[in-house]
Amino acid sequence: MTTYGIDRLVRKEVSLGAIRELLPPSNFIGLQIAPFLPVATDDVIFEYIKGNLQEGLAPARAEDAEAELAQKDALAYGQGRAALIDWALKDKYTASDVTRYRENLLIQQRLQGTISDLRFNEIGRTTEDFQARMAREDALRRRKLDIRIEWLIMTALQTGALSYNDGKIKFSVNYGRPGGQQDMVPAGGLWSATTCDPIGDLLAVKQSARDTYGVELTEGILSSRVVNNMWKSTRFLAALGMPVVASGTTNVPLDPNYMGLRGYNPTGILQLVSEATGINFRVYDAYYRTRAIGSQTFANTRFVADDKVILYPNPGDFNGNAGTNGPVAGQVDDTQLGFAKTLTSPHPEGNWQAGFYEWEDETKDPWMHVRGSGIKAFPVFPYLEYSYVLDVL
After folding, report:
1. Structural domains for the chain
2. Residue 8 has pLDDT above 60, yes or no
3. How far apart are CA 168 and CA 21, in angstroms?
4. Which pLDDT does position 388 carry in this prediction?
5. What confidence tier does 216 reach under pLDDT thresholds 50, 70, 90?
6. For residue 107, is pLDDT > 50?
7. In which region does residue 183 sit, left (phi positive, over 0), alpha (psi from -120 to 50) or beta (all else)?
8. pLDDT computed for residue 178 by the predictor
């Protein structure tokens, strides 16, 4: 974190882009699925093309005949609109903030017998304390922005919609995932049952996507809880040649937790399922913490529910790439949007560059200092109907 001199408190100076030095948290995956796409304005109208291939085959022609005109169906084109929202927050510092903090700390130490005298004019220590506070709150503001971006992307990916209402701004967006693909119960039953069939369930969903949209589902997101339940299926035990004890007998049923077989664990089973289905799974358990003002209790809120499995195509097969994952490759989209993007637009305090920005301001007197951080951003998912969400537990 950059250290800022106390002289910046007593002169007009704007910092452009210093917050860019901080990278998004490494345990967040939202921007890997919907990476930033800089756009020129806050109100964006974008074009997207959904499989502009009517017959799929080029026609033949006679040796001396003129080639047919390529037919374009207007229904193959779509138009979307995204209003980018400015997510920002600030901290205000005054001279009394600094001096009272330091004086109260010294008084507390004196009462506890930690120090033998009181010195209220420790300008050097006061400066250090204030700089540390600014650095800490800079990092906290940026962390909250990262959390907001992750919440936007992962909420849209899981629920197919975004709803927000803080009493000042309210919006609701539906990205168009069909109801029959949202929170589907697996055909073979919940994965918490020992008779579940995870591989069969995933292959059935892949076949449905192939038949309905001509896409291959190659990416998956699930939680550790799902993996820990999935590996106890008796189908895996039977595949190892282990006897499966029927329920209702006096014998003790086999518990995979105590088998001790090399590779027979949640990680090994997930790898087996991935190889059998062709789906690249990511175990994702990231969360953010909240605490009500005045409360001592923290709540951990996950970005993705721990009983869901999210399936979607490889974003690399969009944007006209000649991929290898079936009909979707090169036939779905030839714009910059692809499967998903997080649109971000310029801000004057970011030197008119898209992405994160920072500002500083001194207004009422030289000791009034405001520091803020923000980003203009909003995710778009033109092809969310190509994704499925299973409710497996």
Report:
1. 1-53+76-393 (3.90.1690.10)
2. no
3. 31
4. 96
5. confident
6. yes
7. left
8. 93
- The answer to whether the Cα torsion of 214, 218, 222, 228 is positive or negative is positive
Residue 200 has pLDDT above 90, yes or no: yes
Residue corresponding to tokens 């304390």: 129
SS (H, E, C) the chain: CCCCCHHHHHCCCCCCCHHHHCCCCCCCCHHHHCCEEECCCCEEEEEEECCCCCCCCCCCCCCCCCCCCCCCCHHHEEEEEEECEEEEEEEEECHHHHHHHHHHHHHHHHHCCCCCCCCCCCHHHHHHHHHHHHHHHHHHHHHHHHHHHHHHHHHHHHHCEEEEECCCCEEEEECCCCHHHCCECCCCCCCCCCCCCHHHHHHHHHHHHHHHHCCCCCEEEECHHHHHHHCCCHHHHHHCCCCCCCCCCCCCCCCHHHCCCCCCCHHHHHHHHHHHHCCEEEECCCEEEECCCCCCCCEEEECCCCCEEEEECCHHHCCCCCCCCCCCCCCCCCCCCCCCEEEECEEHHHCCEECEEEEEECCCCCCCEEEEEEEEEEEECCCHHHCEEEECC
Closest CA to 181 of 141, 201, 208: 208
User: In sequence order, what are the residues at sequence separation of 6 or more whose Cβ sits closer than 8 angstroms to the Cβ of residue 225?
Assistant: 306, 307, 393
101 pLDDT higher than 70 = no
State the amino acid at position 274 in one-letter form: S
Give 367-383 pLDDT, tens digit per residue: 667 788 888 888 989 88
Q: Residues of 77-101 as b/e, b for ≥16 C-beta within 10 angstroms?
A: eeeeebebbebbeebebeeeebeee
User: Would you say residue 362 has pLDDT above 80?
Assistant: no
The token pair that represents 17 in the structure block: 């882009």
What are the structure tokens assigned to 214, written together? 């001509």
Widest CA span of the chain, in angstroms? 104
Beta bridge partners of 49: 77
**Chain centroid offset of residue 319 CA:** 21
Residues 34/83/176/320 CA torsion (nearest 10 deg): -50
End-to-end CA distance of the chain: 42
pTM (two decimals): 0.77
pLDDT band at 19 (very low <50, low <70, confident <90, very high): very low
